[in-house]
Amino acid sequence: MKKLTSIFLLLLFVWTVQAQTAREEIRANRYLSANNYYAYPTPTAKQTAAPKGYEPFYISTYMRHGSRYLIDPNDYRFPKQTLLKADSLNKLTATGKNTLDIVLRMADMAEGRLGELTSVGARQHRGIAKRMYTNFPQIFADGTEVDARSTVVIRCILSMTSECLQLQAINPNLCIKNDASYHDMYYMNPPAKDLSKIASSDKVKKVQKDFEATHVRPERLMKTLFTDEAYVKANVDEARLMRRLFDLACNMQSHDTDMQLYSLFTDEECYDLWSCNNLYWYLTHACSPVTDGLMPYREADLLRNILDRADAALKEGKKQATLRFGHESCLLPLVALLELNHYGESYPDVEKLSEQWRAYDIFPMASNVQFVFFHKKGSNDVLVKVLLNEKETKLPVKTDVAPYYHWKDVESYYREKLDKYQHI
């Protein structure tokens, strides 16, 4: 009876966690509202043991760079200039003055470092390397060839370096090769010009603008920061200032600092601003019906590279690793293209999107997709499982050994999908 009660309570806990809305999750953990600025959470999920006799022999990944400084100079400049001007005219409240002080310190910290990897980001990749080794030590045995490639962006190169140095520290006998070249950019960070035009179309912009019109409400925040309402109406781009301050608040988790701006915002404001960002990424990089579900095909060449490199590794039969380091703007559409879990679904109602599709589960800083291949002595049946942020996922393919899948079925499904796209 006691055992049954424990099982019931466990199932109840799991159901409760799964039933949480995005609003509830963000209320419990504001860091989630950062979305693509969300610092990589240390995974706690356990790995399901492979079927009897199977051992891992090849891993193929695509990883986002770790936590970074903000990229756009206006992320710092605009709130800094807006608040400095108001302060010079005695228009800031005590909260406004404190906010200005934090903005100035953040801007000073970021001087000359826009978009660069932070110490937090480097630490994230060292942690991923340690767990990859712990989870799949057979792959990272003496003499294993590790082919690590990065986009030509510094934060990605340093993320690759952090991870590879950690692997080499654990096993000095690994044969690691690093590369970052424009030669590989066609699949590591493809321009996808035709699809980018669709993503920036007037139709997409209107959906986003209409949504933000009812979800970005800066009036309360402005009263918190400024003493003169008339001054604000005449001189301040309220919605823009709110969004920029929120970006700064979100990205402070990318730094080893005790500075924070989240206290400026209510729970509901955090949720609303997140939902705007969540919609943006869904419209421009996932399977939105507004863009006819085409955006994931931005990463057609990346998926093809993953398939081709896997074929080559399987033919060689030796233990090896292919590590790729890039950006969330690639990882998100890749996840949608792969149809991991429910992330390849199409959701027409933008007001309900936040309860159906949450980007913070997909692409925090240092987010990653790992294809792990397993073979069995005396068998040609190779198995694969795919991890998203080190959690086992469901693939759009039938299997009798979930979360493991027969590679021949997985490859066939994705090859056929890519072939169909070529003929659209």
Description:
There is one protein chain. This protein is an alpha/beta fold. The chain has two domains: 22-68 and 119-198 and 284-422, Rossmann fold (3-Layer(aba) Sandwich), CATH 3.40.50.1240; 73-115 and 202-265, no CATH class. The protein has 16 helices and eight strands. Helix 6 (154-170) links the parallel strand 2 (145-150) and strand 3. The longest helix has 19 residues, at 267-285. Its EC number is 3.1.3.62, 3.1.3.80. This is Multiple inositol polyphosphate phosphatase 1. GO terms for molecular function: bisphosphoglycerate 3-phosphatase activity. Its main location: membrane.
Please describe the topology of this protein.
Blueprint: H1 2-19, H2 22-28, E1 54-64, H3 73-88, H4 94-110, H5 119-135, E2 145-150, H6 154-170, E3 175-180, H7 185-188, H8 193-199, H9 202-215, H10 219-225, H11 229-235, H12 238-251, H13 267-285, H14 300-316, E4 320-326, H15 328-338, E5 368-376, E6 383-388, E7 391-392, E8 405-406, H16 407-422
Helix pairs in contact: 2-13, 3-4, 3-12, 5-6, 9-13, 14-16
Features:
49% helix; 16 helices; 8 strands; Rossmann fold; 424 residues; 2 domains; alpha/beta
